[in-house]
Design a protein that fits this description.
Number of domains: 3
Number of strands: 14
Largest sheet: 4 strands, antiparallel
Order of helices and strands: HHEEEEEEEHEHHEHEHEEHHEEHHHH
Shape: flat
Radius of gyration: 32 Å
């Protein structure tokens, strides 16, 4: 940062010298005395440049360490909010109505006796198409979701704000089917699973130098063979996320529904995010190499801010017959912690049935106040992840599952803006310097203040 401040100071000095040379060479009426020049240059070099460099560097670093993670939870409430519509009110679907005149200049006669007519223009009020609009949202244990904002009522022409103005047919109206399904689940006290994307800080993935990142030389060969699926962060619709990936294999059961329900309980109670990759063990014959290649790929720059997060648990299952697990390998999004749990998954899953219900069990939630009570179910994964070596979400602040400090905060000190960001910071200093010098030279208030400073000096 020190070198960047030096370059910034040089830019300020060069801009100032250029400005003074121009004023002197053109005999401009806005001259700068040598003392004024020294005050301006010194102030910008000592105060403005360090503050600007520090502020922009902090923004660049914050951007670099910000990644995305999945948080699992359950639905808690289905909301139907009705907004009453009025002219110039808060409704969304409106049209121009009731024109009125706005006077820009009253009529007047100037000092020469010439009459000038009134100057005006026409503006309009905003009228809603319907007497009300409906907004549908769903609350959950991980935050609210908007299902449909500003829907018009069912049969909107029966709810016209002005009877002679028909409602366009291209606006959404009525109660969304998705919201009705949520409402039915909640009325039956069977809240469904949800997934929300949140931002968090990851010093390890952002670091340009750390050896804590995973590396594999086998990534390209597995990619060429089509054996490395991309990590999925595409939540559809509203809060459903597919976290099961089949690579030349398949298994019985509804994997999407079972895994989302499992991750809702896993996220709610243990703050974890489980992704399961099921691969043909007849094709992938080196489980350790493949699992490391997949983990390294998912945490590479290829996925940017959507790389496997620190609460992520990657479980790779190999199968030869699509019925039985031949081998298992597991890893987390952090380089430390949960080592015993990873061995448990590797050892205990071998030979188990490759069936969604058997693996994920059937976690359930029931409404309780503003939250839920969760029953984790009796699946194979529940017995392991909630077992003796229960999954622990590791913290970037640097403590492992035993509470021992790991000191990841030191990585934050190593993270620096990129070359492109350095160039943009210097460009910002150049533009700000030009603006500051121009303001100081031409603006009366700045000139007066500068004169007072130089006089006192």
């Amino acid at each position: 940062m020190g070198l960047l401040i030096l370059y910034g100071a040089i830019i300020v000095l060069l801009v100032g010298l250029g400005a003074k040379y121009y004023l002197d060479a053109t005999n401009h009426d806005k001259q700068l005395t040598n003392k004024e020049f020294y005050y301006l240059t010194g102030g910008m070099m000592v105060v403005f440049v360090p503050l600007f460099v520090w502020g922009m560097s902090q923004l660049a670093i914050q951007s670099a360490i910000t990644y995305h993670e999945n948080l699992g939870g359950f639905e808690t409430r289905a909301n139907w909010d009705v907004t009453s519509c009025t002219r110039d009110g808060s409704c969304y679907h409106e049209y121009d109505c009731d024109p009125y005149k706005v006077v820009d200049q009253e009529a007047y006669t100037d000092k020469d006796g010439k009459h000038h007519d009134e100057e005006s223009h026409t503006e309009y009020h905003h009228c809603p198409y319907t007497t009300e609009e409906w907004t549908f949202t769903v609350d959950s244990t991980v935050g609210p979701f908007t299902i449909a904002p500003h829907n018009l009522p069912t049969n909107p022409n029966e709810h016209r704000y002005r009877w002679g103005v028909y409602v366009p047919s291209n606006y959404d109206s009525g109660v969304p089917d998705f919201w009705l399904q949520v409402k039915a689940r909640l009325d039956a006290n069977q809240p469904g699973p949800v997934t929300a994307r949140h931002s968090y800080d990851n010093y390890i993935l952002a670091s340009q130098t750390t050896s804590l990142k995973n590396h594999s030389n086998a990534i390209e060969s597995y990619k060429k063979a089509g054996l490395l699926p991309a990590i999925n962060g595409n939540i559809v619709p509203f809060y459903w996320l597919n976290r099961v990936y089949f690579v030349g294999a398949n298994g019985s059961g509804d994997w999407g529904d079972a895994s989302n329900r499992f991750d809702a309980a896993f996220g709610s109670q243990l703050q974890g995010d489980l992704h399961v990759v099921i691969v043909n063990a007849n094709t992938v014959t080196n489980p350790d190499e493949y699992a490391l290649a997949l983990l390294s790929y998912w945490q590479s720059d290829a996925f940017g801010r959507d790389a496997l997060s620190k609460n992520g648990l990657l479980l790779v299952l190999g199968t030869k017959d699509n019925k039985t697990i031949s081998w298992a390998r597991a890893s987390t999004g952090m380089p430390i912690g949960n080592e015993s749990l990873m061995l448990d998954l590797q050892n205990e899953l071998k030979g188990k049935p490759l069936d969604a219900d058997a693996l994920f069990g059937n976690p359930k939630a029931t409404l309780h106040g503003n939250g839920v009570n969760i029953t984790i179910g009796d699946g194979i994964l529940q017995s392991i992840l909630w077992g003796p070596h229960k999954f622990q979400r590791e913290h970037m602040g640097g403590k492992d599952s035993s509470g021992k400090s790991q000191g990841f905060a030191y990585l934050l000190r190593e993270i620096q803006p990129t070359t492109t960001e350095y160039v943009l910071i210097l460009l910002g200093i150049l533009l700000a310097s030009c603006a500051a010098w121009g303001f100081a030279i031409y603006h009366p208030v700045a000139r007066a203040a500068l004169s007072r400073v130089t006089y006192r000096g």
